[in-house]
């Protein structure tokens, strides 16, 4: 499908479809012609007049037979007739700018398309339908109510609204704070459902790294996807843990090398691993004198650099079925399991969910991104400062300022307040045509 948006859409569509009337929202069978009048394809043309379209602008959709060559010809004919190729995310950006949706909803479109698990798709859909925005908007409403009260008291002291001592402000402020904390908690779950956690699995040859990856993957129906940005140097596997994406990075490619190209590959692999959330170090539990504190001794020579990545570490003692060690979480913080039999695996899974802070599928009502979490944290910090001003210094003006800052942070989430470069950054990560 080729989608046209903007004031000239109808004129351009008519150039292609032979100047026929297009009744709004009706599918019309049409022959699409190029500038020379030659038929490129035949299909359906549908016209959505402004403002009742996805972007809020004049929109025409031309549905052809598909196939890259025909679609290219169709796009070219549109461009010859005065259109231009859309930028990445431009349709969603226009929809946002025309108030068809707010920023979290626009982001949810990209998240829905990129969703790697059913849970993340569901969460993104909820965000698209406004579940996250309505939470944020409610917080903003409450803040505005509070600001009106506080600022009125500052502006009209003769009215003798003794707001600092009447308890209403303190009570309302605390209620907003608690509510914002709950939203932050949910947003964190929403982000985990979207992004999950990334693990690097390291250890000596034959410790059972591949077996563990398979065992973790086999637990759920594994979803193996290509992750954008994967270089050929880094092997990644994407699986899920109760609906949370788990990206596993394989260290098999790390080795000593004198080859320049290979060294570059290894350098990139380390750069990728540096961004991971945790390092899992696998050890064969039959090895004697294992010291789980001494990571150096648990890694092969070729992986020693992993120590410098400064990631939190979980040590796993594998092959419990052979060593006879009791499977499960051990007192020294290690996890004893058998990647072959699956014994002890559920304890490791519980541990991974716990360190991620993931509360399980069904706990995330909407998807969220890092920038949303940052904004919520900023709002909470401002509210916290406000509380201190109120209780510590009885400083009304400063409280009012903190409330304003909290509101601004929240409005950055929905896009009611935005910096231009933020919009550019968000929409450029969309795919073309969305
Ligand atoms: P990697 O080199 O660290 O990736 O190790 P692999 O996963 O390839 O495992 C090395 C060998 O150990 C294979 O023959 C596995 O079948 C075996 N293995 C891995 N985990 C276990 C385990 O928990 N119990 C037993 N008995 N064998 C295991």
Characterise the protein shown here.
Among the domains are: 2-85, Gyrase A, domain 2, CATH 3.30.1360; 196-362, Rossmann fold (3-Layer(aba) Sandwich). The chain contains 15 helices and 11 strands. It has helices at residues 9-17, 68-80, 90-97, 103-114, 118-128, 131-155, 168-195, 209-219, 260-274, 295-298, 320-323, 345-356, 370-393, 396-414, 420-428; strands spanning 2-5, 27-33, 39-48, 59-63, 197-203, 236-241, 244-250, 278-284, 313-318, 328-329, 335-336. The protein starts with a strand and ends in a 6-residue tail after the last helix. Residues 220-233 have low confidence and may be disordered. (6S)-5-formyl-5,6,7,8-tetrahydrofolate binds at residues 3, 61, 100, 434. GO terms for molecular function: GTP binding; GTPase activity; metal ion binding.
Q: Keywords for this structure?
A:
434 residues, Gyrase A, domain 2, Rossmann fold, seven-stranded mixed sheet, four-stranded antiparallel sheet, 15% strand, flat, binds guanosine-5'-diphosphate
């Amino acid at each position: 499908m080729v989608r046209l948006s903007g004031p000239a859409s109808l004129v351009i569509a008519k150039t292609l479809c032979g100047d026929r009337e297009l009744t709004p929202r009706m599918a019309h069978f049409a022959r699409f012609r190029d500038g020379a009048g030659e038929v490129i394809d035949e299909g359906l043309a549908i016209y959505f007049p402004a403002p009742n379209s996805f972007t809020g602008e004049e929109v025409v959709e031309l549905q052809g037979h598909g196939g890259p060559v025909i679609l290219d010809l169709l796009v070219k004919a549109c461009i010859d007739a005065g259109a231009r190729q859309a930028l990445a995310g431009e349709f969603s950006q226009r929809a946002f700018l025309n108030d068809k949706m707010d920023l979290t909803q626009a982001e949810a479109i990209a998240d829905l398309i990129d969703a790697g698990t059913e849970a993340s798709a569901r969460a993104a859909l909820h965000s698209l339908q406004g579940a996250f925005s309505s939470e944020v908007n409610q917080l903003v409403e409450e803040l505005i109510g509070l600001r009106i009260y506080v600022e009125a008291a500052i502006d009209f002291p003769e009215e003798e609204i003794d707001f600092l001592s009447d308890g209403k402000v303190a009570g309302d402020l605390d209620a907003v704070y608690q509510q914002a904390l709950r939203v932050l908690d949910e947003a964190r779950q929403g982000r985990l459902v979207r992004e999950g956690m990334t693990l690097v699995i390291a250890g000596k040859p034959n410790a059972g790294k591949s077996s563990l990856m398979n065992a973790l993957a086999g637990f759920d129906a594994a979803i193996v996807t290509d992750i954008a940005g994967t270089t050929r140097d880094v092997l990644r596997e994407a699986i899920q843990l109760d609906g949370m994406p788990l990206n596993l990075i394989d260290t098999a490619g790390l080795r000593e090398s004198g080859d320049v190209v290979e060294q570059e590959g290894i350098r990139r692999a380390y750069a990728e691993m540096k961004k991971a959330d945790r390092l899992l170090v696998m050890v064969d539990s039959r090895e004697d004198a294992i010291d789980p504190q001494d990571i150096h001794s648990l890694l092969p020579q070729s992986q020693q650099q992993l120590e410098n990545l400064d990631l939190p570490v979980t040590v796993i003692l594998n092959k419990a079925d052979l060593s006879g060690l009791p499977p499960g979480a051990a007192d020294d913080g290690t996890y004893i399991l058998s990647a072959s039999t699956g014994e002890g695996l559920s304890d490791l899974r519980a541990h991974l969910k716990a360190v991620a802070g993931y509360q399980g599928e069904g706990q995330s009502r909407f998807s969220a991104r890092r920038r949303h979490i940052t904004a919520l944290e900023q709002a909470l910090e401002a509210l916290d400062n406000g509380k201190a001003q109120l209780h510590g210094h009885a400083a009304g003006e400063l409280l009012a300022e903190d409330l304003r800052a909290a509101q601004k942070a929240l409005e950055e989430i929905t896009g009611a307040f935005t910096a231009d470069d933020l919009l550019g950054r968000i929409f450029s990560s969309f795919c073309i045509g969305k």
